[in-house]
Amino acid sequence: PSDMASDVPYSFCSQPRSVRPRPKYREQSNAAQTEKGPVRYCNIMVDPRVVRGNVLSVRPPPPQSTEPLSTLEVKRQRRAQKQLLARKLTQEEIQRRTPEPVKGREHVYVQTELYLEEISDRIIEIDGECQTDDFLDRPPTPLFIPAKTGTDVATQIEEGELFDFDIEVKPILEVLVGKTVEQALLEVMEEEELAQLWSHQRAFIELRNAEFAELQRLEEQDRRIREEKERRRLEHLEKLRKQKETAEKIAARAFAQRYLADLIPSVFNNLHNSGFFYDPVERDIETEFLPWLMSEVEETLQKKVLGRMMLDSLIRMVVEKRLDEFSHPPPSDQTEVPAEEPRATDAAPQVSDEADAADQPVAEKEETDQPFAEEE
Amino acid sequence: MAQPRISAYLPPDIDPTKAALAFGRRALPKLNEELQSPELLTQQRALMALCDLVHDPEKVYQAIALGFLDSLKTLLVHQDQTVRQKTTEVLSIMALHSIGREGLIRSGVISALAGLLDDPVDICRKNTHQTLDMLAKLPEGAGGVLQADLIPPLVLKLKTELDEIQELILDTLSNCLHVEVSKALAAGAVPVLKEKLSHPSTAIRSKAAWVLLEISSHAEGKIAVCEEEVIPELVRLLEDTQPEVQVNSAGALMFAIVTPQGRSSAMGAEAIPPLLALVAEETSKARLNAIKSLTLLAELPEGRKALLDHRATFQRCLEDPSEAVQRAAEIALDVIDWKP
Fold it and tell me: Where is this chain compositionally biased, Acidic residues type (chain A) (predicted)?
């Protein structure tokens, strides 16, 4: 067994289990079947079934003890055995219920039941033995037909005895036909209800469509009127704008006219002043004739000046020469002087021929200027 | 209370084409597993059983809570036509319940259905369009159809499909265009609808006029309708023999002639005499729409002149039992008598 148990770590012949608590009341037949609650574990400290006290106190002495018993232990053992005996006796005495027999009498045990029992120590035994025979060929079992017992009885159902078909069939037919007709009625009512619902819905849809169309018509009308109003409003605004523009234009025109009323005269004046309008002949005279005249006059004057200068230089020369001559008498050249003098005199009359009488004071002034210039 | 059926469950094996239903709450989960099985026969039988179960609103609720819609969406593109047909049938029955509709919109079945518009099998397409039609009746459904960009394909299909499917498409379009109209106009819906106005079938004519009504209740729709010259067609339809066609075309006119161009083209098409004829009939449903259209035309000077002679007709409308007609007649009289 230990070899067989080696592959299992632990095995028991009977599994250890905890003992159920002792029920307080006797088991009722029906209660045990109906309720099987969770298994309660009892507290072995207070369980009356567990032995209390020193379980090691009454130990039978081992048959052969290796150590010799000491007298102390032997005495203890004998004392323990005596105590046990004494306890047993007292218990027996307490348990006894029947009183002691009176003097001269004896208590006898008597059976009082209906049927007497023979009480003996020896059990009646009877020996019996059996032995199987050798196998024999077994014949097939005969067909078992039990013997006929009892009496034969026959019965026959005549017509009309069991039931009357016409009467019996009535309620069945009624049920069948009734159920069919009821089913048909139910279906017809359902169809009617459906048709009613459909017509109701149709009426509602018609009403809704009519109202919807009315709504759309009113919307359309409203839209038209609004558009018309908008258009008219815009037209009116346009009209007002144009009016305002025209008024502004008129005002601007009047103002501009007044402002520019004396524009033309002033413009002409300005132009006239700045010389845009000119008489061509006058301009011609001014631009060409007069400059030419002035240049001629200038030339003439220059010639005069030149002549005067020449004259001045001549005079100077002459004077210087005469001064030289008078300072140291030179043998010479009275012919040169008269040659120069006619030249100078030629120049002078030319000059005097051409010059006006008005120019002479000018020439004289220039003469006087010249010597001043020379002197300075 | 009497229940239509004695027992909620039919006797077992009564129909060999249907899968056997598990008991109680296990029925739908088991069907869900069978739907995802790789074997074709199991899927078909499960779908047949599901078709019958889905008539019960509680089962629809349970199915949607269990996530049937995802497996149904994968089955929509199956190769076998029976599977597709039954799947679309299941979806169309689910769309009849409000819980089913909400669940279908939430799980995005609409975009999955978009792929089935070109299916070769007629019944699949018909069921698909039925589903879309029921879904479009909800505002969220209409929004979902618009978002899935289904309007251009639907408009294209109008030209080529069978008549009864065209009716479904027109219903779907009318509900979707109630919300938004630009995509349909971009896909060229108005010329297609103009053709449909001359279709021999009454239902298609009246539904096409209804779709035109929805289109012209939006501003860009009105412009498109005027440009495509649909108004003379609508005026012609006012004299149609069928009352529904008259009602719808009068309604479409009522919206379309709000714009000035619409009004002038209506006057050009001489819309006043047929409208007056409609107003004069005591029991016509088109009375309300006709009165409204005449009110719109009376805002034009020529219209007012013409209608001043017919004030008696409007006076008689004031005694109509419907309150809406009385109000409309009063407004019309006001507009006719208005002087600038």
Answer: 366-376
Q: Which residues of chain B have pLDDT under 70?
A: 1-10, 12, 340
Confirm whether B230 is domain-assigned. yes
Alpha-carbon distance B66 to B35, whole Å?
A: 13
Q: What is the CATH number of the domain that holds B113?
A: 1.25.10.10
CB contact under 8 A, B255 and A216: yes
Alpha-carbon gap, residue B138 to A44, rounded angstroms = 75
Among partner residues B251, B258, B259, which is closest to A209 by beta-carbon distance? Answer: B251
**Of residues A186, A214, A221, nearest to B292 (C-beta):** A214
CB-based burial label for B128 (10 Å; 0-12, 13-18, 19+): buried
Would A294 be classed as within a structural domain? yes
Q: How far is the C-alpha of B212 from the C-alpha of A120, rounded, in Å?
A: 119
Q: How near does any CA of chain A get to the CA of B117, in Å?
A: 27
Q: Please give, rounded to a whole number of angstroms, the shortest distance from the CA of A180 to a CA of chain B.
A: 8
Closest residue by Cα to residue B78 from B51, B42, B52, B116: B116
Quote the distance between the C-alpha of residue B9 and its chain's center.
Answer: 36
Q: Which of B182, B204, B226 is the last residue of a domain?
A: B182
Q: Quick check: A163 pLDDT over 90? A: no
Split into its structural domains, chain B has a count of 2
pTM: 0.57
Residue B6, domain member (yes or no): no
User: What is the tens place of the pLDDT at every residue in A186-210?
Assistant: 999 999 999 999 989 888 888 888 8
